[in-house]
Amino acid sequence: MLSVFVSLLFAQLLLALSMARHAPLTQRLVQPAAPYERLKRGTRLSGFGLLLLSLVVAVLDSGPGLGITWWLGLFPLSGMIVVILLEHGQPRSRVVVPGRDSEPVSGRLVEDCE
Amino acid sequence: MKTRFRAAMAQLHRWAGILFSAMMFFIFLTGTVGYFHYEIDRWMEPERPLAMDRQASASDPTQTIFSAPSAGGRITVTQAELVELGFRRLHALAIQDAIWWGVILPTGRNGNTWIEWQPPRRPDGHRPERRAEYLSFADGEPQWIRPRHTGGGEALYRLHWKLHYLPETAAYWIVGLCTLLMLVGLVSGVIIHRKIFRDFFTLRLFRSSRSWLDLHNITSVMSLPFQLMIVYSGLIFFAVTFMTPIVTAQYGEDGARTFYREAFPEAEAEPKTGTPAHMVPVVPLLHAAQAETKTSIGQLYLLYPGDKNARLSFYLPETTPGHYRGKPHKILYRASTGERLEGGNQLYGGAASVEKTLIALHEGLFADWRLRWLYIFSGLLGVGMIGTGAIYWLRKRQARDRQSFAAVERFYAAVLVGLPIGIAAYFCANRLIPAHWSERADWEMHCLFLAWMLTFAYTWLRPLERIWRGLLLLAATAWSLVPLVNAVTSNRHLGISLANGDRVLAGFDLSAIAVAIAFGLLAIYGYRRAYRSNGIGSRAVAAEG
User: At what angle are helices B406-416 and B418-432 packed, to 10 degrees?
Assistant: First the structure.
């Protein structure tokens, strides 16, 4: 199940990095800079591929009933680790959706309120 | 008049929602704790011996051996010896009128060998509690121990659907209705949350007023499959309660038993004859059953002990959620002759198999310790989802009308932090109430609710800006007292459990310490940061100031 956990962790990290919210981080991580749309498609595709692979490995390892149960249990655990990692490694600027976030917005990227 | 009526209705509407969320928090927290109810049982019965180690042979289950801690080092016993010791003790107790006897061998969760029996119903129809004795090798010789009477983990676990003080049917209806509303909330929440993927990995702690919403979304969405499964399967538990008229229409007023027999057909036990008969040796039958199933068996039950029609059942361990699908779950023998009986397979139809699988998923009995921790983690995410949702709701409204929501804030503080304090009080009461007092199990539970009620009094008596931090510090203190009280009042403290490698007992104390540290960090570090970033309490300060 360790392999399922690791692949879920990477799958969710890739998926998270393909989200607009983490665009600054994604663009900082990839050097030399690639066009963002292509980067987004690539990370999202590999993320979903790895996600599917982890499910297949879980089912092959423990059978459908137990494998899916394991997968669904590991999904939030790896997801929360990814979320906390990203929150911790967040650059000082971040994306704010105009009209949804409560801070005053002067553009797409605003300085953190802290 | 119209305005006053509308205001009263608004209050009613508000408090109905608040009470519902508080109830769901109670159900989720006590239900989550219940995933460790066997382990909690062990901790709450400190008279029980330290855990035995089990060394199973992969090729031959009959070669399974156990080692028990004793004063002179570890003692090794075989599976057959434990079974013989168990049945010998049951014969020696001469409890022939018992409905059944049981011998349970150690597993990673329960750690002990014990015997149990079900005394017959009393003349007034009341069914007494099962009785149990635990096998100890502490002095080198086998001894049988009766632990203190306690509600244990089971009483805590049952809270989430029995609500303790309420009549059973009323509790079922309340919990069932809340579960139904929760399912509606989950499904509609997914639908109304249009940008569910966009917010999937977004968490902004202590940065904005949206932190609580981020936390609520993250905990909800990450554990959504678990929440859907747990809520839907929870409803399945109440299916017959909710649909009693359908069963009654089909089977008549007293037809529930017939309905269950038809829906979940099992091998009917031959009735008790009243003719006494000797029992054949159990161990050869156990070996035969293990050879047939290639599985190590740990639970043996004898129905109608001493009778000609006494039936031996060897229960197979449940290893997957789909365990019930047509597989044998027990191997049966006639105890007076050793004849192999048919009927260990459950002959369920499709609907009954689905129901049993969902219930197995809900209870997670098949889960090993790693998967069990994932159940706990997902359950805690559910607790977090309800808690953060409640605080977000409160904060949104406090921005508009600060003063009128002070009562709600006090209530939520007492529910969200007070309940864990009550649970810590339950554990401490287990050690502090005299071990031989006959009503101690009832008073353990009373202590939980009394401590919880005291937190309500605390939130109402203290200034609003102090209640969160005060309660969090109280929770940290209460949970740190659990291992301390254990160390002072019993010889099952961390020094003993860690030295003997008793992972369950040590795990309980270490978990209590971890919970205490978590509350302490929330009180000192988390609260300060939340306060600075205009979080809970700060608006209230302004309101009261």
Answer: 40
Residues of A in contact with B225 (CB under 8 A): 72, 75
Question: Which of B207, B223, B321 is nearest residue A113 as measured by Cβ atoms?
Answer: B207
> Sorting pLDDT into bands at 50, 70 and 90, what band is B544?
very low
Residue B352 lies inside a defined structural domain of this protein: no
Are both B133 and B159 inside the same structural domain?
A: no
Answer yes or no: do A73 and B378 touch at CB < 8 A.
yes
| Rg, Å, chain B Cα set | 26
Per DSSP, helices labelled H in chain A are 2-17, 23-29, 36-62, 64-88
Measured from the Cβ of residue A81, the count of other Cβ atoms closer than 10 Å reads 15
Candidates B198, B204, B371; nearest CB to A73: B371
Q: Is B500 exposed, middle or buried (0-12, 13-18, 19+ CB in 10 A)?
A: middle
Q: For A76, which residue in chain B has the nearest alpha carbon?
A: B222
Q: A71 contacts in B (CB within 8 Å)?
A: none
Q: Which candidate from B202, B229, B381 shows the least CB-CB separation from A76?
A: B381
What is the model's pLDDT at position A78? 92
**Least confident interval from A90-104, B392-406, B508-522:** A90-104
* Tens of pLDDT, residues B463-473: 888 888 999 99
Residues in chain A predicted with pLDDT less than 70, given as ranges, are: 27, 30-34, 89-114
Find chain B residues with C-beta within 8 A of A16's C-beta: 200-201
Residue A66 to residue B377, Cβ atoms within 8 A: no
Give dist(CA B439, CA B407) in Å, integer: 36
Strands (E), B226-318: 299-303, 311-315
Closest residue in B to A14 (Cα) is B201
**Are B453 and B479 members of one domain?**
yes
Q: Based on the number of CB atoms within 10 Å of its own CB, is B280 exposed (0-12), middle (13-18) or buried (19 or more)?
A: middle
Q: Where are the domains of chain A?
A: 2-111
Contact B218 A83 (CB under 8 A): yes
Boundary (domain end) residue, out of B322, B347, B372:
B347
Chain A CB contacts of B206 below 8 Å: 114
Residue B85 domain boundaries: 52-146+266-347
Q: Which residue has the higher pLDDT, A17 or B232?
A: B232
Domain finish residue from B347, B382, B412: B347
pTM value > 0.95: no
* Tens of pLDDT, residues B102-132: 999 998 888 899 999 998 888 888 888 888 9
What residues of B are in contact with residue A99 (Cβ under 8 Å)? none
Domain count, chain B: 2
In a domain, B511, yes or no: yes
Per-residue pLDDT at B400: 67
